[in-house]
């Protein structure tokens, strides 16, 4: 005998109850800002913008510049790469961390806290995998600087990544 496994399309209709609350995501309300079907074309002329003194004193996320140290900065064939260290003195959720920033706007591709395991970011979701996966090695695609692997290995040292 095999145990019965229901797939979503096989669940009898009387097992599901729909209310207006759990269907609210189906609302057809227009977005807050309509998309402009005719965007302005960008000028091919180079332009310079002046930064106010207030914007030069802090990073975009509000961390004072004197509390952020650039450890590595270079341009590769594919990305603009920076590794930053945020001081433990900063009044910010990333205090005490090292960040791998890629691309022009500085997208965070990895975060590593030297004094704690969990990051309070989506990398922590990877820590839920070892208990639900069958035994064996865990493969990660898009390894970055190893944030997900670090969380897994510190919480489950027996796992092979």
Largest sheet descriptor: 4 strands, antiparallel
The largest sheet has its strands arranged as 1-2-3-4
Total count of helical runs of at least 4 residues: 3
Q: Which bin fits the share of residues in helices?
A: 10-25%
Quaternary assembly:
single chain
Low-confidence stretches: 1-59
Secondary-structure content class? alpha+beta
Order of helices and strands: HEEEEHH
Distance between the termini: 36 Å
Radius of gyration: 23 Å
Calculate the mean pLDDT score and round it. Answer: 73
Strand content: 15-25%
Anisotropy-based shape? globular
Query: How many individual β-strands?
Result: 4
Care to describe what's here?
The structure is a single chain. This protein has 161 residues and is α+β, with helices and mostly antiparallel strands. Among the domains are: 57-116, no CATH class; 117-161, no CATH class. It has 3 helices and 4 strands. It is globular, with a radius of gyration of 23 Å. The two termini are 36 Å apart. Mean pLDDT is 73; it is low at 1-59.
Task: Furnish the topology, listing elements before pairings.
Blueprint: H1 53-57, E1 68-75, E2 80-86, E3 97-102, E4 107-113, H2 129-132, H3 147-155
Antiparallel strand pairs: 1-2, 2-3, 3-4
Main attributes of the structure:
17% strand, 161 residues, 11% helix, 4-stranded antiparallel β-sheet, 3 helices, single chain, disordered N terminus, globular, alpha+beta
